[in-house]
Amino acid sequence: MNVTLSQLKTFERIVRLGSFHAAARELRLTQPSVSQRIRELETMLRTRLFIRRGPRISLTAEGHALIEYADRLLGTAGEMIERFSTRDPLKGMLRLGLNESFALICLPDLLRRLEQRYPGIKTSVFVGDTGIVSKKLDDQELDIAVVSEPAVGPHVRLEPIGKNKLGWFARADFDVARGVLSPSDLCQFHLIVSPPTAQLHATVTQWFADAGAVPLRVSTCNSLSVTILTILHGTAIGLVPVRVMQDELERRRVRLIPVSPEVRAHRVSICYQISEFGPGLKVLVDLTKELVAQHKLFV
Fold this sequence. Notes:
With 299 residues, the protein is of the alpha/beta class. It has twelve helices and twelve strands. It has three domains: 5-86, Arc Repressor Mutant, subunit A (Orthogonal Bundle), CATH 1.10.10; 93-163 and 266-294, D-Maltodextrin-Binding Protein, domain 2 (3-Layer(aba) Sandwich); 166-257, D-Maltodextrin-Binding Protein, domain 2 (3-Layer(aba) Sandwich), CATH 3.40.190. Helix content is 45%, strand content 22%. The strands form three sheets. It has a five-stranded mixed beta sheet, with helices on both faces. Strands 9-8-10-7-11 form a five-stranded mixed beta sheet, with helices on both faces.
């Protein structure tokens, strides 16, 4: 025998309403049925929950402990029922996937705006590269995601929201001997890029291959924030989205290295499960587009 939600609901109603009789009336049960549920619950937990003094009842110490568990479990059950009855991911736990550019620039505003509209919302945020986020979308582990060059199945809808411009960055004191560098020129330097699961890795590999150039020393890092720190420390030259370096450029802590040809910008889309699309997700899609425009994140 296991503890059931019906038992916990009966227990919670007795505590809140103050008597077995009142709980039975609200739950539309007979008082013997209410008493039976509590006996079963006490047997399962091997403890007394109420002290009975005639018509009056009070909680034992274990009863006081249980009401906190009961409230959490019943609340979660209520969220689950609302989430799946409405098929609205914003009612309950929203599973959100993001590329790092959006996460670094727009995520705080997005969460604040969602909280204003949906005060009870909970979010599970996954920040990752194209390959990993695309797979999670395909496996339906995410409700919605902002991802570069997504590779997803027909059950996921894509809405383009712009292009993520990429650039080679070095510390501000890096000396560029020539005005514009070619892939062959960059080959001699220590470079840092995203790992193979990222679309950026494929893009930079193709960029060098098209020029017939092979870099001598390439490091990889799966964190954009750490890659930026590596550039700031002068350890390596990195290929990163131009928008996320805007503040560092304005502070003159880094320099954007002119190259020819330019590195291809990535097409960015907002992607979501077609089966879940409704008024809630539409609000999120529109809000995401608004924040991208407000922060001038993509071109």
